Amino acid sequence: MDDFAGRGAGRKRGGGRASGRRVLLYSHDTFGLGHLRRSRTIAQALTAADPHLSAVIVTGSPIAGRFDFTDRVDHVRLPGVVKLPDGTYASHNLGLEIEETVALRAAIISAVEESFDPDLIIVDKEPWGFRDELTQTLETAKSRGARIVLGVRDVLDEAETLRREWERKDAARAVETYYDELWIYGLPEICEPLAGIPLSDRVRRSMLYTGYLRRATPPWPEVGLAPPDEPYVLVTTGGGGDGAALIDWALSAYESDPGIPLHGVLVYGPFLDTERRAEFDRRAAALDGRVTAFSFDPRLERLLSEAAGVVAMGGYNTFCEILSLDKPAVIAPRVKPRLEQYIRTEAAERLGLVKMLDRARDGEGPEVMAAAIRGLTGQRPPSSIRIPGLMDGLETITARAANWARQAAE
User: Fold this and answer.
1) Rounded to 10 degrees, what is the CA torsion of 93, 95, 98, 99?
2) Residue 222 and residue 225: Cα distance in Å, rounded?
């Protein structure tokens, strides 16, 4: 692996640059919460480990402002975009063509990079950014001597599908041209996400499997979610935009089996369709207090930490939370539009970390989900399986950044 730490030592800074190290994190966030939550977790770990470091997250998430950010971490919101049913994109709120919106986003990103003058840039998943909006920023930052890292989750997609996507986006060229390192937020025991991508030996040597990103449990807020007084199972869909099927399945289990021993706590996610939310609320209310439903709270880790078990779809952040808080979990992964969740969950089940509900293998009736929820009371937690380095992600990242800072100062 190249000496990431020392290569930026001779960097020229802009006039008036104050002391202290700076990290810029890019999170395109056209939909969902995963990219923003991952970037926020990394930014907060970096600033906690280094009192002289500040971090700015540039994000397209429409709900970024609903999250808390710790000291020396802030965010800049990009104009939002949405994916339409036909697969094309459109501006979320602005009355602009998508090309104009992308140009505006690119200009904002460039302005932030120039003004903030980061020593390190961490790009989440998309090497060129959304529709190549990072191109100018990458060029400028590289010429200034900033270190640039591409961070990807443990699983991206099925290998051939990902190869075609990267070929279409010319993503490998961006990696070869601009990126100093690739951080993979997982372990090869689960997946080697870039194994099928044609990359140079230099890039292969720059890959670092960090382990998963450990999540902490925040204190209960004065307002927001409050747990029931009895043992409960948490049913969570992450962002919720594609989580209606899981909520429906869990509700059907409680409707068909009045003897389920765990109270059901459903958290829909902020992107669940409003009509489906109203339908689910009516069904939950008819269950005589056996189920509690919430829309969304950014401190979901607190609710998860006190649950007897978890039922989830298996997105990256939820998987990290299940491992971090050591909860018996049943994961029913989606298989469209990507196989990411299925690949992750199948590997995790094979290792003994979680139980998977595969509709094709296990069935999809309410009794299947009811049995899975009942089984959580006797299911072993993830910690019963010893996998070296499993949860070392944040420690690996902060150690890498500290080593770079130390050598740059010499």
Assistant:
1) -130
2) 9
First-to-last C-alpha distance (Å) of the chain: 20
Angle at 267 between CA 255 and CA 368, to 5 degrees: 40
Q: CA 171 to CA 184: how far, in whole Å?
A: 16
Q: For residues 294 and 192, what is the distance between their CA atoms, to the nearest angstrom?
A: 36
- Could you tell me what percent of the chain has a pLDDT over 70? 89
Long-range contacts of 189-195 (CB under 8 A, 24+ apart): 189/347, 189/351, 189/387, 190/154, 190/155, 190/344, 190/347, 190/348, 190/351, 191/154, 191/155, 191/343, 191/344, 191/347, 193/152, 193/153, 193/154, 193/155, 193/156, 193/162, 194/152, 194/156, 195/159
Tell me which residue of 298, 249, 243 sits closest to 268, measured CA to CA.
Answer: 243
Q: Which helix (H) or strand (E) holds 248?
A: helix 244-256
Report which DSSP code applies to 221: P
Looking at residue 173, what is its pLDDT? 97
pLDDT at 323: 97
Using DSSP, state whether 240 is helix, strand or coil.
coil
The rounded distance, in Å, linking the Cα atoms of 79 and 87 is: 19
What is the identity of the amino acid at 392? Answer: D
**pLDDT tens digits for range 170-206:** 999 999 999 999 999 999 999 999 999 999 999 999 9
DSSP H helical ranges for 257-308: 274-285, 300-305
pLDDT for 16 beyond 60? no
- In 84-157, beta strands by DSSP E: 89-91, 120-124, 147-153
Which pair of tokens denotes residue 179?
Answer: 């990126």
Section 135-140 average pLDDT:
97
Nearest to 179 by CA among 111, 125, 103, 109: 125
Q: What is the pLDDT of residue 2?
A: 47
Rounded Cα distance between 325 and 306, Å, is: 9
Average pLDDT over residues 74-92: 80
According to DSSP, residue 198 is labeled: -
Task: Using the predicted structure, report yes or no on whether residue 343 has a pLDDT greater than 80.
Answer: yes
Show contacts of 278-282: CB within 8 Å, 24+ apart.
Answer: 280/244, 280/247, 280/248, 280/251
